[in-house]
Amino acid sequence: MNNFDPLASAQAALFSLFTGGPLWLATHFFVEPQTTAQSGKPDHSRAPIDASKDAAPLERSRPAIAPSCGRHGLAATNGPQWLSNRFEHGGHTHRFKLYVPSVYHGQPLPMIVMLHGAHQDPDDFAAGTEMNEAAEAHGYIVAYPEQSESTNLLRCWHWFRPSDQARESGETSMIAALTREVIAAYHVDPTRVYVAGMSAGGAMAVNLAVTHPDLYAAAAVHSGVAFGVADEAFSALCAMNDGMSKVRLPARLPEGLQHRVVPLIVFHGDADEIVHPRNSDQIVAMRALLHGDCSASLEPSSTYVEKTKNGYAYTCCVFRDENRRPVGEQWLVHGLGHAWSGGNIEGTYTDPCGPHATSEMVRFFNQFALGT
After folding, report:
1. What is the pLDDT of residues 229-247, one digit of tens each?
2. The domain at 6-365 falls in which architecture?
3. Which pairing describes strands 302-307 and 264-269: parallel, antiparallel, or unpaired?
């Protein structure tokens, strides 16, 4: 991946120029999504102790951040860790953050890879989604890859570029490589690795689920788009705006991988003016295309409507296979805009008045492991 890709920089600048013009709503996906957060930088003073931001890069010969104990024989910590580090891939350096729960003592734990949206970073995303709190409660390690401003001025993942929709190249390849490195460094349970994202990060989570079904046991997509609905910036804006672009799946995957379809939980607000709610339907349809049985897979096995204590009602459709095993869920939150449902206003692009998406994602993930 070229950190100084002139096309990417030109596209980012173009998106900035769109702000306030006719394409204002669509470009907020790249520029600044709707948020209910307070203005100003979120306060992360209550986060666990952070490691040095100048820590050594992650290398195959040694972990980026040494595990607290276990076979490495290091002293155990007394609480959770919120760690910063760097990862070398393709000749470039990528920053990421890692949450290690207090229950970790070298044993295999499950892991979630969290992909932030435009204008966010790992600290902001962790605060808004409260994923670290959920990870502490359920015993998960959480990795937060960071999109840098040197790669994209708006910190947006390039989910729409063909090179970033491929298994062997681009940002999908980089995030998958980082996932494998953290698995090795922390002896993560390789059968229980998951990916989740919001907005542009949600679209990139879809890319990873499609291209790496052997790595991620399940995926969560919040306010994202389906795979292959765009191949450059303008078609990406169109896809987000109407949710009617054609899904184009990869021509081929390595032998054997196409036989597994990653279970998906999808969240979207029906008042989202940045990414049309039809994109949620497209993700469900995309999964049916991957499965190869559209007519059977598109019909939910059950649907229920509820209302949260703190505001929004929602409709949840549960999808099961022919053996009645769960394979997907679609949550449409009524009244929610382009924001993380049930999120904490200490982070940006959140709305507390909805079902707690983070809790539902972790519950969903707990049902799945590779090889079962």
Report:
1. 999 989 999 999 988 888 8
2. 3-Layer(aba) Sandwich (3.40)
3. unpaired
